[in-house]
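Try it yourself: sequence plus adenosine-5'-diphosphate, in.
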Amino acid sequence: MARVQLENVTKRYDDVTAVEDVSMEIEDGEFVTFVGPSGCGKSTTMETVAGLTKPTEGRVYIGDDDVTTLAPKDRGVAMVFQNIALFPHMDVYDNISFGLRLRTFSDDEIRKRVEQAAEIVQLEGMLDRMPDEMSGGQRQRVAIARAIVRNPDVFLMDEPLANLDAKLRVHMRTELQRLHRELETTIIYVTHDQAEAMTMSDRIAILDGGELQQIAPPLTCYNEPTNRFVAGFIGSPSMNFLEGELIEGGLRTENFDVELDPGAVPGVGVGDDVTLGVRPEDVHLAEHADSLADHTAHIEARTDVLEPMGDEVFVYLLLAEEVQGSMEEDPASSPNQLLMSVTPDTEIHEDQAVDVVLDRSKVHLFETATGDALVHGLTDRSDQESGPTATEAE
Ligand code: ADP
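Structure, out:
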């Protein structure tokens, strides 16, 4: 077990900066996931820990050692990759023990470690199987067992579940969590799948364009995203974003106003462009607004497409008549569209006029120019009169 520290790590390839000034400390025994869109620098960052890539600038520490220039084999790390490279002509036992045999462990020691690892990944009784007699999930477990027997200080896993089918991926997530609990080893895990990151990790590190955006527990990233990128990346379907401008006593968006005290929003003032963010589950039908401690004034909308998911229904709302029937490419950032999630027993159908409200405690504001978060949850109104806004008056 060991802590891992990245100190101002930058990696440049000719004209590409894959990783830009990334610093973070990963605690001993922590499960940290690097997540972000393809090309954001997740793998390269992990490779600097593995020793497969030498940073252009910055230092990497494992435990108390500066390992920046050490070879991978001298770092106490074990890696599991997306492509499961098992030797097809070797049985499970030989595949798991291969690395140990190269390191001249005694036969007894090898058998002990292989049996323990096989038990942890639940492959006991399969040690004499050949890889082509196993499912994808079982083969991936062999690869994990091969990493376990090395008894590493740090596990590095790069998209290890990417080639498995959806059901098996969900199952393997639970297995990896159990593995982490049993081994108590530091794990760094790379994925582009935010759901995977959310469900397994102690903390997630969100990268974009080679830069670290936020590193925090999953729910902190969900509830208090540091910027618009994180807010949009974490959560599925994505948060709604509506562009607006701070006015006296509120925020004006294209189709509705939200009361607030601009003086209570740090760093911006009346006249500044501010983006409102709200997750689909925090948009409610006005008739259900009583259950909310505090909500915005009614917003008139028309339902467009409904997507029943079984446990919830996604309702695409149109806020302006003229865009009806012309859904835009990215509904999450259109000024005239809003995605709402409702329970399946809600009586609602397509092309219905509805009034909706936003849960004020769940409304986020971002500075439009920088994308930086300004506030999470609206608490301050400019006055305590909560009369209807212009858009509510009919
Ligand atoms: P991710 O794992 O998030 O998909 P990577 O870390 O693989 O992203 O890549 C980050 C960026 O660095 C990408 O633009 C990629 O094209 C570039 N890159 C990665 N490895 C190399 C390399 N060996 N040579 C040149 N560019 C690279």
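One thing you can check immediately is this: Confidence is low (pLDDT under 50) at residues 384-394.
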